[in-house]
Amino acid sequence: MMENTSLGELAELIMGQSPPSTSYNSEKLGLPFYQGKSDFGPINPTPSKYCSDPRKIAEAGDILISVRAPVGTTNICLEKSCIGRGIAAIRPKSIDRDFLFYYLRKLEPYIEGLGSGAIFKAINKSQLFDLPINEMGFPLPEQKKIAHVLNTVQEAIAAQERIIATTTELKKALMHKLFTEGLHGEPQKETEIGPVPESWEVVALGDVAKIGNGSTPKRGNKEFWENGNFPWLNSTKIHDKFILEAEQFVTKNAVEKCHLPIVKADSLLVAITGQGKTLGNVALTRIETCINQHLAYVEFKGQSVCPEFVFWYMQTQYDLLRRIAEAGGSTKGALTCGYLKTHPIPVPSIDEQNGITAAFSAIDWKIRIVSEKQKHLQNLFRTLLHELMTGKVRVAELEI
């Protein structure tokens, strides 16, 4: 084992500097310009701005590190680029570049803890220089082997990401095709929702479903929450898409005294308010449940519609629902149950609904399988990063 070696002894450090604002441009004049973590990707940055009069330059292959809030995030520079004061470039001299990159990833929580500043955290060149690197004293050949193992796992993660992106785009294209052309290639007709097959109907959601919203019992009242056994959902559950369980429960007294609707299984839920991207999202609840006031339920009547078919169609309505909410006059934006009752949906035969649903379910299943594989690989990467960099597992012990 060797004594700790500081980053400044192993690499050249180039602290970024803001160029004249008049040199910023989006016309690709000059060099790509990186200002901070917002430009970073999983491994490499993506330029959104360019600079025609750079002050500090990173070369292709340099490690970029965010030195202003947030602190410690790293990327690898793909081409000669201008760096602003939110970034430093690290140019390895006597250490393998990829090994150093991954070592800095291991140190990210430590580096973040070094940040200081009343308004936002930052680290300086001296702190970067003194970072302890290669504490196990791995020789260069072993550094390269460690980097190779981690690169292999990282490439597998990226491959899964590409599959997910491609399959997601395929699903979007298929949604557009099937909701306008159907399965049987029949002639189309123009409707209020655009072209649909001639045999399809277009009806208001309220014609085929009961629609309402829930509420939140007073949190401080133990009578409503303590030892509750009725599932109760808030709007964060909308992102589950298919809701199989609840994390929160209310009592029978809450249901009765607060007049909480009990939503049947296989009902559609719609986020009618919400922060970020929540508003306009939909989910299917597979359980009987209560909901809060930020969700609307769509409880289907009769056998004319397949809940899954409406779920998939309403996924295509996300942008429209958000525009309608924003146009409603509320500063925060909200949908109303009154509007949802009028929202038009296509209704083909039940057999065609089931066929379209099966097509989307098959694609969604593939995305979920690949996403699970990606999560396992990410967990493997985190484990290997820690075990290899701390010497708990030596690269010679791995079966590669």
Highlighted features:
5-stranded mixed β-sheet; elongated; 12 helices; 21% strand; Helix Hairpins; 400 residues; Adenine-n6-DNA-methyltransferase TaqI, Chain A, domain 2; 3 domains; alpha+beta
Report the biggest beta sheet as strand number plus sense, adding barrel if it closes: 5 strands, mixed
Mean pLDDT: 94
Strand sequence of the main sheet, in spatial order?
3-5-4-9-6
Strand portion, in percent?
A: 15-25%
CATH architecture call of the largest domain: Alpha-Beta Complex
Low-confidence runs of at least 5 consecutive residues = none
Number of domains: 3
Count of discrete alpha- or pi-helical segments spanning 4 or more residues: 12
**What's the end-to-end separation, in Å?**
25 Å
| The CATH homologous superfamily of the largest domain | DNA methylase specificity domains
Structural class, from helix and strand content?
alpha+beta
CATH class bucket of the largest domain:
Alpha Beta
Task: Give helix % range.
Answer: 25-40%
The total of beta strands comes to 23
From the 3D structure, determine the CATH topology of the largest domain.
Adenine-n6-DNA-methyltransferase TaqI, Chain A, domain 2
